[in-house]
From TrEMBL, chain A:
Signal peptide: none annotated. It comes from the Bacteria. This is Aldehyde oxidoreductase molybdenum-binding subunit PaoC. Keywords: Oxidoreductase. Residues 32-138 form the Aldehyde oxidase/xanthine dehydrogenase a/b hammerhead domain. PANTHER family: ALDEHYDE OXIDOREDUCTASE MOLYBDENUM-BINDING SUBUNIT PAOC (PTHR11908:SF123), XANTHINE DEHYDROGENASE (PTHR11908). NCBIfam families: peri_hyde_PaoC. The keyword Ribonucleoprotein does not apply. GO terms for molecular function: carboxylate reductase activity; iron ion binding. The lineage of its organism: Bacteria, Pseudomonadati, Pseudomonadota, Gammaproteobacteria, Oceanospirillales. The keyword Cytoplasm does not apply.
UniProtKB/TrEMBL annotation, chain B:
One of its GO terms (molecular function) is FAD binding. It comes from Vreelandella glaciei. InterPro entries: CO_DH_flav_C, CO_DH_flav_C_dom_sf, Diverse_Substr_Oxidored, FAD-bd_PCMH, FAD-bd_PCMH-like_sf, FAD-bd_PCMH_sub1, FAD-bd_PCMH_sub2, Mopterin_DH_FAD-bd. Signal peptide: none annotated. PROSITE patterns: FAD_PCMH (PS51387). The lineage of its organism: Bacteria, Pseudomonadati, Pseudomonadota, Gammaproteobacteria, Oceanospirillales. Residues 1-225 form the FAD-binding PCMH-type domain. This is Xanthine dehydrogenase family protein subunit M. Keywords: FAD, Flavoprotein.
């Protein structure tokens, strides 16, 4: 099905199932421990062995020597494969670091061997017996140095109008530098795979991955085999947040282990290795300048940022949203990805925007204060309905102002603390803050197959459910389109034997995959109509109605299966439009006047994200994003050892994600909007919108509570303790 | 983790004798710290002596009017004991601020005292660490190191790690003593100050325990009247080790005692600092943190310690 123009009024505008609150259908399996995750799939292949990775303990250099003889002789060990025995593996497009093979070490905890044994304990015990000698090379690990060197150089990605003149002429300007920390996805389920490549022929991979086809292709490239020989299954994923978009070392090591031993091998990355072995969100340093007239209208933006990446990667592009979020005729934005020796940085939930809005939305708050304006009013004044760089490009649906207004009303913004540091309850300073949220709404080609069997519908697509609710919304989509009940639809996901979908990432999954399932259902309807010899048929209450015919779906094929397959292809008419999702976050914090501990007391998000397919799963996505935003604001930061070149706090004791006690009452309001240019369902994503701007809202609330402006994340107490009020009474 | 042998003993003296006799033996109680360290091969005992069956899991009154806490009493049971909650509230408060409910159910009094540091470099066997491998050097003291969580006082040029226990800080302010049995069956009593050793040139030596010596109990002196408070400051609201913690017992006349956690290789307390309590937080800290040697990243702990005590004093 081609989606070449905005959709008209259609069945989803009169929906019965879509848009209604349905609890997630895989919930029972999950809470009863029966949803099979990759590492626990003991049943799928007999005689599994366990592999344990060995990782490099230098950041840069060469391995000069490895002795695995003691490990090979250890009890239960079936095989040891060291990186020196192999040529460097071919690198798939999606990967920046080499995953295995060869003597070169590109980053700390790069995989350099795998030990395969009967049990985890045996493999782990033998792993430490491998002797490794290195020749260390000098590396660059300090982003501050790079920033000092590079700021104000390089090609801007956008340079519109006359920025310098606008700043020179503006009565009110801001020029500040901000820092965001490197972050780990820290999803609950580690990277894990079971691989059966016993005979070196067919390779079967049970894994935890967001993108089935990308990863199958990456495996084909890495092992130089035909993708047709590879089957991938990933029906349940215990969180990904972008960390599982790619092929990682778990599957590669398991594949080698399996080929060597002739048995299926499973490998999970131990948590302390994930932070440096796998990918992360790069830290950034960002300089933001804003110019405005005394009426509060923004005349210019300048935004420059650096982030780190291994050679060939793209880093964390924190400037992107500054190109089109607010009005203003002049703007210059530039991002420098710096080649550094730290582990591979790559996408993490709202890549770019999460870090960019964390900064832009503080700068907006600072600017509003300079102008003596309410930060909500300042944003309303600077709303734009067109891309300010290309005013001929309109936003399709942009209800940012409504998000701001509704948020302010529901939060009680009018009763907020007005004087920074001015409201106190006992030992706690109380403050309020807000921020805008913006994230694109991309869509990707997505396919599905549907099988009608005796009145039951089976949907097959390689789409993944990474805890997001894909099973549920795809069931709703099929039930809606086919006029069936949800219980008569069974959705099967995450298998390379199924048609290729968008996969889960970039908040394109829900929009694209539901449209793909819709396309397949329409193809099925056409087949049925043809079979019944009618031009058009209606599908309702489990029946097909056309002219004189009124038949139960169960009866149309005499027990025979009817199969249809299609995919949705989004046309390039979208290139002429700006399609985005918008939101506003409001928070209340308490900051301890003595210690600087910050506790979030209340959070509200208002989201404009097109048709909400299922308010329960959508809300889960948004509050999950808000929770991650609390972590980003207050605790999450990987500490860099700038000489040894690695992230030191590489476990969940040292890297602090928010715990229950950190999360207060969270409220989410969805605007009742649709976006006909986005997809047949008029939906857009919410999974990444939820995190955008949250950290800044908290930072602004801390300022409002204390009068202390922190421009570096995470906003831990040591960054403000010297400026807190005197403790003398 | 390396293979090890395992036995259960029922008598503390026998446990101590066995521990001295079998090479590279260790006691295991709740296992919440030791097993993690074994998995990482930071500790590699060849033999484990399970002391869970030694019957030391009771809290009993002493003749002096205090309490005797068996070494195997769980952190959960200790924090919930009504006598502890009433007369030694600082101890209850410190305990419940630590770890999580599940961990406190398993963690024991003896094991808590002997938990190892949470220095990130200590946990990474790819890094040099004097505490883990004597003489290897200290990664945390090298240029570029991440030291925000580490110690500011009582540290040495060999090691700047802290002792992470909350319970021990409360025991210190309570003047508790550790009771042990040695491998020859001798009973010893050590104050917490005698029990914990400063790192000096030998950060691998953390306590005064001799080979095989087992902790049998912690002895609490008669209750100390006054307000009992424990303030643990951390980045997130729960389930994190202290950046700084303050244990305070203060009499109505303003006199009292103060101990600090999160700043030193052992709970940190000084008599002259206690004596300064009526003069306020800054007078106490001027003495208690005299001689501190913070890094650039953890110098905030000096201010934080003082302000945390000030917060407690302002609460009344
Ligand atoms: C995730 C996590 C978070 C935590 N957070 C905190 C926190 O916030 N605050 C805090 O204070 N603690 C915290 N802890 C540490 C916890 O308190 C300790 O792990 C626990 O108290 C150890 O007790 P155990 O009985 O399990 O000791 P084990 O692990 O069994 O033993 C620890 C050590 O003590 C020795 N040992 C045990 N019993 C005896 C004995 N009777 N005589 C001589 N030696 C003995 C063992 O040989 C071993 O060396 C945390 C732990 C974890 C895993
Ligand atoms: S501070 Fe102590 S524990 Fe940490 S690395 Fe140095 S020697 Fe080891």
């Amino acid at each position: 099905m081609d989606f070449n123009q905005s959709t008209e009024d259609n069945l989803f505008d009169h929906a019965r199932v879509i848009g209604k609150p349905h609890a997630r259908i895989d919930g029972l399996l999950k809470v009863t421990g029966r949803a099979p995750y990759a590492y626990e799939r003991h049943d799928v292949a007999a005689n599994q062995l366990v592999g344990y990775p060995v990782c490099a303990t230098i950041a840069r250099g060469k391995i000069t020597h490895m002795d695995a003889s003691a490990a090979r002789a250890a009890p239960g060990v079936a095989a040891v494969i060291t990186t020196l025995e192999l040529e460097p593996l071919a690198r798939a497009d999606s990967n920046v670091a080499h995953l295995f093979g060869g003597a070169t070490v590109e980053h700390y905890h790069q995989a350099i061997a795998v030990v395969v044994a009967d049990t985890l304990e045996q493999a782990r015990g033998a792993a430490s017996l491998i002797e490794v000698r290195y020749e260390e090379a000098k590396g660059v690990f300090d982003l501050e140095d790079a920033w000092t060197r590079l700021q104000s150089t390089g090609e801007p990605v956008a340079n519109v109008g006359d920025v310098d003149a606008a700043f020179a002429a503006a009565p009110v300007t801001l020029d500040e530098t901000y820092r965001t920390a490197s972050q780990s996805h820290a999803m609950m389920e580690p990277h894990a795979s079971i691989v059966d490549w016993s005979d070196g022929g067919q390779m079967t991979v049970w894994t935890s991955n967001q993108m089935i086809q990308w990863t199958r292709q990456a495996l084909a490239t890495t092992f130089d085999i035909d993708a047709g020989r590879i089957r991938l299954e990933s029906p349940y994923v215990g969180g990904g947040f972008g960390g599982k978009l790619w092929l990682r070392a778990d599957a590669v090591l398991a594949a080698f282990g399996s080929r060597e031993t002739g048995r299926p091998v499973k490998v999970a990355l131990p948590r302390p290795m994930i932070f440096n072995n796998a990918t992360h969100r790069s830290g950034t340093i960002q300089r933001l300048r804003i110019a405005a007239g005394s009426d509060g209208k923004i005349t210019a933006f300048e935004h420059a940022a650096v982030s780190h990446t291994l050679l060939g990667g793209s880093g964390e592009d924190a400037v992107n949203q500054t190109r089109c979020f607010y009005a203003g005729e002049n703007r210059r934005v530039a991002h420098h990805p710096i080649d550094m020796g730290l582990p591979e940085s790559a996408d993490m939930r709202a890549p770019g925007e999460a870090s960019g809005l964390a900064v832009l939305e503080i700068a907006m708050d600072e600017m509003a204060e300079k102008l003596g304006m309410d930060p909500v009013a300042f944003r309303i004044l600077n709303d734009t309905q067109v891309n300010p760089e290309e005013p001929s490009k309109p936003f399709t649906e942009r209800h940012f102002v409504e998000c701001l207004r509704k948020g302010a009303d529901n939060f009680g913004w009018a009763e907020r603390n007005l004087k920074p540091g001015g409201r106190r309850e006992g030992q706690w300073l109380i403050g309020h803050g807000m921020a805008g949220a913006y994230r694109g709404a991309p869509t990707m080609t997505s396919g599905a197959r549907v099988r009608l069997q005796n009145g039951r519908l089976i949907v097959e697509t390689d789409m993944t459910d990474i805890g997001t609710g894909s099973y549920t919304i795809l069931t709703q989509t099929a039930a809606e389109t086919m006029g069936m009940e949800m219980q008569d639809v069974e959705v099967r996901l995450g298998n390379s034997a199924y048609p290729t979908s968008s996969g889960s990432g970039g908040q394109f999954g829900a929009t694209s995959a539901t449209a793909g399932v819709y396309a397949a259902c329409v193809a099925l309807q056409q087949q049925i109509a043809k079979r019944l010899n009618v031009d058009e048929a209606r599908f309702e209450k489990g029946r097909v109605v056309a002219g004189q015919t009124d038949m139960a779906l169960a009866d149309i094929a005499d027990g025979e299966e009817i199969v249809a397959e299609d995919s949705i292809n989004f046309g390039d008419f979208k290139d002429e439009l700006e399609i985005g999702t918008f939101g506003a976050h409001f928070v209340e914090v308490a900051v301890n006047a003595y210690t600087g501990e910050t506790r979030v007391r209340r959070m509200l998000a208002v989201c404009d994200a097109g048709r909400i397919l299922n308010p329960i799963t959508a809300r889960s996505q948004v509050i999950g994003g808000m929770t991650m935003g609390v972590g980003a604001a207050l605790t999450e930061g990987m500490s860099v050892d700038t000489e040894r070149g690695f992230f030191v706090n590489h476990d969940l004791a040292g890297y602090e994600v928010a715990v229950h006690a950190d999360i207060p009452e969270q409220e989410v309001i969805f605007l009742d909007t649709t976006d006909a240019a986005s997809s047949p369902l008029k939906a857009k994503g919410v999974g990444e919108l939820g995190i955008c701007g949250v950290a800044a809202a908290i930072g602004n609330a801390i300022y409002n509570a204390t009068g202390i402006r922190i421009r570096e994340y995470p906003m831990t107490l040591d960054r403000m303790i010297d400026q807190l009020p005197s403790t003398e009474r | 983790m390396k293979a090890f042998s395992y036995e259960r003993v029922s008598d503390p003296a026998q446990a101590a004798a066995r521990a001295a006799e079998v090479p590279v033996a260790k006691f295991i109680a709740g296992g919440t710290n030791l097993l993690d360290l074994m998995k990482h091969e930071i500790e590699i005992p060849k033999h484990l002596i399970d002391v869970g069956g030694t019957g030391l899991d009771e809290i009993t009154p002493t003749d002096e009017g205090g309490l005797r806490i068996g070494a195997l009493v769980s952190n959960a049971a200790l924090s919930a004991d009504t006598r502890v909650r009433k007369d030694y509230a600082v101890l209850s408060r410190a305990l419940v601020s630590g770890a999580s409910g599940q961990l406190r159910n398993k963690a024991t009094t003896g094991g808590n005292l002997l938990q190892r540091t949470r220095c990130g470099y200590f946990y990474d066997t790819g890094m040099p660490c004097n505490k883990r491998s004597p003489g290897a050097g200290c990664a945390a003291l090298s240029k570029g190191a991440a030291t925000r969580q580490l110690g500011i006082i009582g540290t040495s040029d060999a090691c700047i790690a802290t002792h992470p226990s909350d319970m021990a800080v409360a025991l210190c302010v309570l003047d508790a003593e550790v009771e042990t049995v040695t491998s020859t069956g001798e009973i010893r009593r050590l104050t917490l100050d005698e029990f914990y050793q400063l790192p000096g040139d030998t950060p691998e030596v953390e306590t005064a325990l001799q080979a095989g010596e087992m902790i049998t109990a912690v002895l609490l002196p008669p209750p100390v009247e006054g307000r009992h408070a424990y303030y643990k400051v951390r980045d997130r609201a729960s389930y994190a080790f202290a950046l700084v913690s303050v244990a305070l017992i203060q009499a109505p006349d303003g006199t009292g005692r103060v101990a600090l956690g999160g700043v030193a290789p052992k709970p940190w307390r000084r008599d002259d600092a206690d004596a300064a309590l009526p003069q306020g937080a800054s007078a106490v800290m001027a003495r208690l943190l005299d001689g501190a040697r913070p890094t650039q990243e953890n110098a905030y702990k000096l201010t934080l310690a003082e302000r945390t005590l000030a917060a407690l004093l302002a609460q009344e």
